[in-house]
Write a structure and sequence with these properties.
This protein is of the alpha/beta class. It has a single domain, classed as Rossmann fold, CATH 3.40.50. 58% of the residues lie in helices and 12% in strands. A five-stranded parallel β-sheet has the order 2-3-1-4-5, sandwiched between helices. Helix 1 crosses helix 8, helix 2 packs across helix 3 and helix 4 runs parallel beside helix 5. The longest helix has 24 residues. The termini are close together.
């Protein structure tokens, strides 16, 4: 089973598509954002540490995120592959994930890059904030998160492109259409459901 990443700006639909693609391919979808939010909700030590960071639209430090990912990928359900959503976000995290995969005797099979228009992303995130009451989704924080993404995460796509791993997909459209585009792009790389 494959080892995959899904990347794209906040609001591009990564979380929705990660669950759908992981299910289609029989691997766990691992979302750092979901793990952080669950810990905040449960008021764990981790949750208390990351709450202020996320509310400011910043990234959680690599050391903390790397530890979380290492622990999660060591669980039995990830032994046959995984789909990571929200990780890696920095060059240090890419290097750490390379080490984890080396230890596992595996490598990345593909990086799905969801592309979405900035105005559409802002609209989606504001709607989600209204629906879910997410304190990290004010317009100012959303725009800051997009700036942080462009500065910190977008350059990582070049690393994966150099490795020939990027499958670029238009993230705008009906959920089913986007899922079909992703699965078709993965199949073209030899990663099939």
């Amino acid at each position: 089973m494959p080892n995959l990443l899904i990347v794209g700006p906040p609001g591009a639909g990564k979380g929705t598509q990660a669950v759908r693609i992981a299910e289609a391919l029989g691997v766990p979808a691992v979302s750092t954002g979901d793990i952080f939010r669950q810990n905040i909700k449960e008021q764990t030590e981790l949750g208390q540490r990351v709450s202020a960071i996320l509310d400011a639209g910043e990234y959680v430090p690599d050391s903390l995120t790397n530890e979380l990912i290492d622990d999660r990928l060591a669980q039995d359900d990830a032994a046959g592959g995984y789909l990571l959503d929200g990780y890696p976000r920095t060059a240090g995290q890419v290097e750490f994930l390379d080490g984890v995969n080396l230890r596992r005797g595996e490598e990345l099979d593909a990086v799905v890059r969801l592309v979405a228009d900035t105005d559409e992303v802002v609209r989606r995130l504001l709607a989600r904030a209204a629906d879910q009451g997410r304190s990290d989704d004010t317009e100012a924080v959303i725009r800051h998160r997009l700036e942080v993404y462009e500065r910190e995460t977008a350059p990582l796509i070049a690393i994966f492109a150099e490795r020939g791993l990027v499958v670029e997909v238009d993230g705008i459209g009906a959920v089913d259409e986007v899922t079909e585009r992703i699965l078709a792009g993965l199949a073209a790389r030899g990663v099939a459901a």
